[in-house]
Amino acid sequence: MTASDSPQRSRPWLMRTYSGHSTAQASNELYRSMLAKGQTGLSVAFDLPTQTGYDPDHPMAGGEVGKVGVPVTHLGHMAQLMDGIPPEAMNTSMTINATAPWLLSLYIANAQNAGVAAETLRGTTQNDIVKEYLSRGTFIFPPEASRRLTVDVVAYCSAHVPQWNPINVCSYHLQEAGATPTQEIAYALATAIDVLDAVRDSGKVPPERFDAAVGSISFFVNGGIRFIEEVCKVRAFTQMWDQICAERYGVADPKLRRFRYGVQVNSLGLTEAQPENNVARITLEALGVTLSQRARTRSLQLPAWNEALGLPRPWDQQWSLRIQQVLAHETDLLEYGDIFDGSVVVEGRTAELAESAQAELNEVLEMGGAFAAIGELKQRLVASHTERVRQIESSELTVVGVNEFTETAPSPLEGDESILRVDPAVEAELVADLERWRGARDSNRVVAALDDLRVAASGDVNIMGPSIEAAHAGVTTGEWAQALREVFGEFRAPTGLGGAGAGRASTRTALATVAQQCAAMEGGPPRVLVAKPGLDGHSNGAEQVAVAARDAGMEVVYEGIRLTPGHIAATARDEDVDVVGLSILSGSHLELVPEVLACLDAEGVSAPVVVGGIIPPADHQALRDAGVAAVYTPKDFELATIMADIAGLAEQSRAGSA
User: Fold this and answer.
1) Catalytic residue among 173, 204, 385, 589
2) Is 172 marked active-site?
3) Apex CA 548: angle with CA 546 and CA 554, to 5°?
4) How far is residue 378 CA from its own chain's centroid?
5) pLDDT tens for residues 482-531?
């Protein structure tokens, strides 16, 4: 078919940028600016306290307020966030999971206050808690309770917000955690099946509406750099989902069986070294999910070139939006049918992926489904990620500018002003705002709303009705989550370290050299505490450090995510560790690291502290001045070298305390 033969040019996908920071007012200004530049949908990033159900004045929120997203603590913040953006005319995607029922309730309540019916609202709540247990870490409640909350959102939207996607099943974060394409497809489909089975079995969606509920399920997929394989992956996803909807759920309407998915391309592949190369990566990854017409994404958000350095500026996000606009409006991509139909290569690889993913999916279903198999799936992902890291270390997997072609001229794009920094005063401002909000509301209405919320959670009443009333009453994010914590309890996810180990011969040799050094140490192998203070749940790096330390012959203490500085210090004291390693990717290192150091000092722990994460070069000296022995960032990919450094620090520490 030629361009002239094409019946019409396809409509572009929704264009978004994932954004939010500091305050609702500042984020609203950013959103309105990006919409004026041609963005066609919103993708809201919430800060970690909002995602994990804490108010800004909670001790766990310290240093995290407004850092990786916008804080939305009450209905007033939602009104500020959406000011001047008509909710009935906007398609809003909210990256929110454990607190998804609450943020959706705030969104609905704000629309109601504006005179907009919930039936007109269009958008998505991410609401995929399985991948939070496996990779992203913003879970709160145990799996069974979390699945119940997801079912409630699906059921409520089916009846009252029919144009809303109540869950966005996320394979994106699985790839970030190391998933192969086979695992990415299988584990995402297993999650969708688990949720839909629970919706069907709950009786909260009548049979006449169940097909539409199936059709409301959407997905959020990762677009990686192997973009031919990514084309095949989304085509396999499309085929398999259609089959599942038809055969497992009996959905007859092909429109309701569509694999409706959005994409953010691969942030895992963005590099701190030569970050300008990320522009080419982002563009190629966008092609992988837009080239195939039949499997084309319905919405796309591209990361900024400098996300491996820190929080992007509005200009950086504009650049990513312009990439989408050039692709959609300047090229002839949308003028043709599916260019891969009949391709021996693409159809062959698609069939291979579908076959291997079906086998993996069958294994998960035999284990009882995604929720029941969380521990096993986590272990498999850590092992897959370990293998990927080893391939980069051995240069079997080339990453331009990192392990090959490392010579470079200075970049004019970098420098101290190349990222956005959140004013530390924001946290105090939000705490003061929270005090004013609590003082102005009807306390009796708040108490009654929270009581109704607990009753609903304790029984089988859909959580959404009481949550919307709580939003109108002035309940805060932390109060809503605390009420449910009292009913459901909290959950500590598995670390997945048990099945991972050194994979490549070259890495085994390098770690074996460190292991010999550790075995020869007077007093036995060094004890290393790997810890994640604060609310940052991205544990992939910490897990790989813990695996490497264990494979290098060290005794490793790793308790997972979301630890207080006081807990870290007490563990370091009780375990008598030789080195403390802190991992922080949320930008809160300048607040949390000094607090951990102070707690260690108070406990009499003199072990050296090293810090890893997304830490701008300008902050390295400040951390060293505070007492940190070494700082590592994503460019420090050679784990054997890091392990040798840690072993040396342990020897120095023991010699100094002898």
Assistant:
1) 173
2) yes
3) 75
4) 15
5) 999 999 999 988 887 875 555 444 456 788 899 999 999 999 999 999 99
